[in-house]
Amino acid sequence: MIVYDSDNILVNYIESQDMLITTWKGTQLDTSLFMKELQMCRDFCCNLNIKRAILNQESFNYVIPSKLFPWIEEEINVPGYKNGVQYFVFVVAETTMSQFSVMDSFDEAESVFTPHFFLNQNEALEYLEAPKKEKIQLIDPTVFLEDDILLEVTKDEVGNKAIIQMEVPIDALPYNLNMLKKYMDGMHFLKNNWKKFASLTKREKLVLKHLVKGRMTKEIAVKLFISETTVKTHRQNIIRKLNAKHLIDLYKYATVFGVV
Length: 260
Hints:
The chain folds into 3 domains: 2-132, 2-Layer Sandwich (Transcription Regulator spoIIAA), CATH 3.30.750; 138-187, no CATH class; 199-260, Winged helix-like DNA-binding domain superfamily/Winged helix DNA-binding domain (Arc Repressor Mutant, subunit A, Orthogonal Bundle), CATH 1.10.10.10. Helix content is 48%, strand content 17%. The chain is built from 9 helices and 8 strands. The protein has a 6-stranded mixed β-sheet with strand order 1-2-3-4-5-6. Helix 3 (96-109) links the parallel strand 5 (87-91) and strand 6 (116-118). Helix 1 packs parallel to helix 2, helix 2 (69-82) crosses helix 3 (96-109) and helix 7 crosses helix 8. The chain is globular. The model is unreliable at 133-146 (pLDDT under 50).
């Protein structure tokens, strides 16, 4: 049930699950609008006795100034916590700096909440519903494989080449083609971006690994035995060197280059 719909956010109340889902619409925000909409979300959480909240920030493009961090904690997070909000999860913002400003707002304010971040809303919902759901059955790709894989090596003017043939059941063809396409997309990305990735230092690669796992600045600093300021410096260098316009860019680099 939609309980609030403005130019900036849409708030959906799922009574059966004591859940509120807030979705930012991608409009241009200023400080006043941002604070107003957060207060509206807080009031719904408190008045409806919400236990679980999802903030879908895929289209969120506002970089939260550090001066607002204490206000967010005192006026938004603490009242929600005191009124019974138990789970506070986010769908990550595509805009890199917007996402990191959200993470910093929890980190620097030593928040009462430990936020969880997910790439899409389905993942966030699965996380919140997990205690009530049976274990998810994943596709077992081994049932699609035949025993025989044919390998043929040829040679021409260019050099040696290898041809790999694999037989699969016709019903499994779409699955295998999809996996092959993902592999080829990854190889093209690797070929076109390896110089950027190679420019990262060893420590920057470690920071990248923790960033894409959704870890906060303070947590990364503790794990790597460095200061929070150093973590933020590494983070800025990573964004600059990889020319990461969106957070998903960092996930792509981390996945393709085997960081995670």
